[in-house]
Amino acid sequence: MLVNNVKSLLNRQLRCCIQTTSVRLLCTAEGGYTSQVKDTFRGNYDVIIAGGGMVGCTLACAMAKNSLLSNLKVLLLEASPKSDYQLKSEYSNRVVALNQNTKALMTSLNIWKHVEDMRLQPVRYMQVWDASSDVMISFSSADMMDDDVAYIVENDLMLHAINKELLSTDNENTHIVYNAKIDSYQLPKEKYSSPQSIVKMANGDTYTCQLLIGADGANSAVRKAMGVQYLTWSYEQMGVVATLNLAEECTNTTAWQRWLPTGPIALLPLDSKRSSLVWSTWQDNAKQLLQLPEDQFVDALNDALWKQYPRSSSVETCTSWLSSCLKQVGMADGAARQLPPSVSGVAAGSRAAFPLAFGHSTRYIAPGVALIGDAAHRVHPLAGQGVNLGFGDVKDLTELLAEAVYSGLDITHPNWMEKYESVRQRHNVPTQFMIEMLHRLYTVDFMPVVLARSLGLQIANALQPIKKLIMSQAAT
Fold first, then answer.
1. Which residues touch 186 (CB under 8 Å, ≥6 apart)?
2. How many helices (H) and strands (E) does the chain have?
3. Average pLDDT score, the chain
4. Does 200 lie in the same domain as 62?
């Protein structure tokens, strides 16, 4: 095995020399860089990660810390300029709900300690209920062997924690280029040839690599260069976000989500006095909410949380009957519930909105190229799973690539890359399907549909194995 590893390392070094020469000749042949070859070619790398968001930076950190991958020469291209992060007393309006698997990954990379040193809010309880009936489902830390249901962390704080650990990692093989504006990609075309990607920057700089990772978001230029089919549609909705001030100080460790006929509204805890809003609604309504004066926005928000919507007598009769049956056999009927907090105000300048859409790339890989995060898949925020799926991509890609290197395989060998695609799609596609079905099920106000989902939610809440299955799926 040691001979295989040495042989693989020597092969990569030889290939770097050959590729550097070939790229210079290629640039000259193309006629664009004849007189500036030495100035524009900035180097050959084993891996280039396009995109320095939370997922891309985590991958760079994971590779730098992995003993089998730390010798790889890695370049991270980040479009934003380098900036100093300052923790402010006011919370950011964009947050993520991180599950237990993400926490485990971040702990293994020593990133979680930076988050804990700043701030996060654990979610110990979660309550989801339907505005069109009285049914609900709840989850608590007791359902997860006393582990927290989730952790609410601000996006920019999380990215800072990842960057802080990445920059402190003692690995001279990892390089970062900030303010990197990528002009185009030239990708290898033959599956079993020695692949080489060329990354051309807007300023004329050129980089080459064996393995190109697309971590450049939902509008991924890497994915477009691959030419793979991308399934996407708009929900014709926007997610309205804001930082909310609560009417009363409380032990705020509960996440609340109410399904309105227009989409879900969620309050995610930040501290004892504040929560973060994610309100999914139709585009016209979202734009109106952004334009309302603060007092009217707060009224609309409390109305969305507390308003009694029209009920179907048939649905009420059936759910009441099922509730009685559940009581008779000693099971939870969902009648006991907590009341959500009232909102008293909105942090100045925190209201914003972003469009909601579905997206999934039919292929995650091509010769010498792989996609991670939103570049490969995009989901509705109703389940808070988007970034967790991306971090799952990072974990599996790192592990499979390390196994390939340990076995003496090339870092672009199709065996491990195809396994990565298979493993991730087997997890991501069912999760996306479940979220899509929930969205479609709860944005319909047709009585038979309301009845079916109400009875289903009652049964799911009463059966602990089903609740644990839901929680285990959400935690991976």
1. 197, 198, 200
2. 14, 20
3. 88
4. yes
Indicate whether 325 and 456 sit together in one domain.
yes
Give CA 130 to chain center in angstroms.
Answer: 26
pLDDT for 476 equals: 63
pLDDT at 9 over 70: no
pLDDT of res. 468:
75
Instruction: Count up the domains in the chain and report the number.
Output: 2
Residues 6+ apart with CB under 8 A from 31: none
Q: Tell me the C-alpha to C-alpha distance, in Å, between residue 197 and each of 118, 213, 267, 370, 412.
A: 39, 10, 44, 12, 11
Asked whether residue 49 falls in the same domain as residue 185, the answer is: yes
Tokens 């930082």 appear where?
Answer: 243
Sole residue written with tokens 């802080």: 164
What is the C-alpha to C-alpha distance for residues 420 and 397, in angstroms, rounded to an integer?
A: 6
Q: pLDDT class for 309, splitting at 50, 70, 90?
A: confident
Same-domain pairing of 27 and 131: no
Is 159 part of any domain?
no
- Domain co-membership, 374 together with 455: no
**8 Å CB contact between 105 and 433:** no
Please indicate, yes or no, whether residues 66 and 215 belong to a single structural domain of this protein: yes
Q: Which residue has the tokens 């080489």?
A: 196
- Is the pLDDT confidence value at 128 over 80? yes
pLDDT tier at 12, thresholds 50, 70, 90: low
Q: Which domain holds residue 44?
A: 1-82+178-228+363-443
Q: Which residues, in sequence order, are bridge partners of residue 265? A: 258, 279
pLDDT of res. 192: 52
My answer on whether 346 and 241 are in the same domain is yes
What the block records as the tokens of 163 is 């960057």
Q: Tell me the CATH number at 413.
A: 3.50.50.60
* DSSP per-residue letters across 398-421: HHHHHHHHHTT--TT-HHHHHHHH
The per-residue pLDDT for range 192-233, each reduced to its tens digit, is: 556 799 999 999 999 999 999 999 999 999 999 999 999 999
Over range 240-264, report the average pLDDT.
Answer: 94
Residue 308, domain CATH: 3.30.9.10
- CA–CA separation, 254 and 476 (whole Å): 21
